[in-house]
Write a structure and sequence with these properties.
This protein has about 280 residues and is mainly alpha-helical. The protein contains nine helices and two strands; from the N terminus they run αααααααααββ.
């Protein structure tokens, strides 16, 4: 009886040991199997981190290349078909919308408005109003000079003058052909980018409304047969970049003034037929 009992106990102990070894072996195997997965997950996380964190130079370069590619594709395949489609489907409703939004791209109208907005912001001590007015006013001055310079060098024919988009009077001193880029679109996107950049974080609906309005201004110029689609694209890019550049300059000047390292001087300039302000910032 004792021998049988000893044998049973021995078998139970042996079974427990074997099952324990099996479990520990399975645990080791499981750990060994999960280790590469953990390392793989870690590696993928690091890879995702490196992929998502591009330098500003890479981002800007990618944006420029993508924009240039889109512009070239539009020039080759969309300019002329879109112009023909828009003119063959013109309607009174579209003409009415174009008449409403077209003034929003006039520099001579928006320049005094943005300048007045900046002065009111300074007078009331409202930082956002001061900023949006100053940035918009500065970007309009920049775009006005650049747009005029480009127009007077490229001298592209408007779609109202020709059905083909590749006619230019390159380098001519005098030419009535000034289609490229669209100054209306440049002005509209300069103001829209300024407004969206200043108020976008506090009011998420403002950027789509601002950019949507600027896009309507550009489309109105296509509807009126005044510009090609590529004129609109170039104007939008020019307005956006000028506004962002003006915003960087404003932020830099604001930081310098807060640190007491700069001095801002505003001098009114009153004439018989005009009135203006001269701003000087010294670092």
């Amino acid at each position: 009886m004792k021998l049988v009992t000893i044998r049973v106990i021995f078998l139970l102990v042996l079974f427990c040991n074997l099952s324990g070894h099996a479990q520990s072996g399975a645990s080791i195997v499981a750990k060994q199997d999960t280790l590469p997965m953990a390392l793989s997950s870690s590696d993928s996380t690091r890879a995702d981190f490196h992929i998502s964190k591009f330098s500003p130079t890479v981002k800007v370069t990618g944006a420029v290349l993508a924009g240039a590619s889109l512009w070239i594709a539009t020039y080759a395949w969309i300019d002329e078909p879109l112009q023909k489609h828009m003119q063959s489907h013109r309607a009174q409703t579209l003409d009415a919308v174009a008449r409403v939004v077209e003034p929003m791209g006039r520099q001579r109208l928006l320049l005094p408005i943005t300048g007045t907005t900046a002065l009111v912001g300074f007078a009331l001590g409202n930082p956002n109003l001061r900023k949006v007015g100053s940035v918009s006013f500065t970007s309009l001055l920049i775009t006005g000079g650049l747009t005029g310079l480009i127009k007077n060098q490229v001298h592209r024919y408007r779609p109202s003058e020709t059905d083909e988009n590749h006619f230019y009077d390159w380098g001519m001193a005098v030419s009535e052909n000034t289609s490229f880029p669209s100054s209306h679109t440049t002005v509209a996107f300069a103001v829209a980018t300024s407004v969206a950049s200043v108020y976008g974080k506090e009011h998420p609906l403002i950027p789509p409304l601002a950019y949507g309005t600027a896009t309507l201004v550009g489309l109105s110029r296509i509807n009126d047969n005044a510009h090609w689609a590529t004129d609109i694209m170039a104007g939008a890019a020019l307005g956006y970049v000028s506004a962002k550049g003006s915003l960087l300059l404003y932020n830099l000047a604001e930081r310098k003034l807060k640190k007491g390292k700069g001095k801002l001087t505003a001098v009114p300039n009153l004439g018989s037929n005009s009135a203006s302000f001269y701003f000087s910032l010294t670092f």
